[in-house]
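Entry for the shared binder. Reason: the reviewer on the internal report wants the predicted structure included alongside the sequence.
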Amino acid sequence: MSQDTLETRVMRLEQQMHLLIGDRTAIEPAPDDWKQTVGMFRGDEIVREMIEHARRVREEERTRLRDGPENRPE
């Protein structure tokens, strides 16, 4: 395969990628894009478990910090 052919193939690939994904850095999210994600994990058992675990960790940390400096993590 000649160098010209490789360069041509790379140029064509770059053009196709640009058509597929465009210039993502130029896209500004709409002000209300966040609304599309609200509720998307409703009823998801794994997400519920993650939230519950995080709540327990935060509560344990609060308890440790309330008990005094001798129980604080280093």
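Summary line for the report: The chain has a mean pLDDT of 85.
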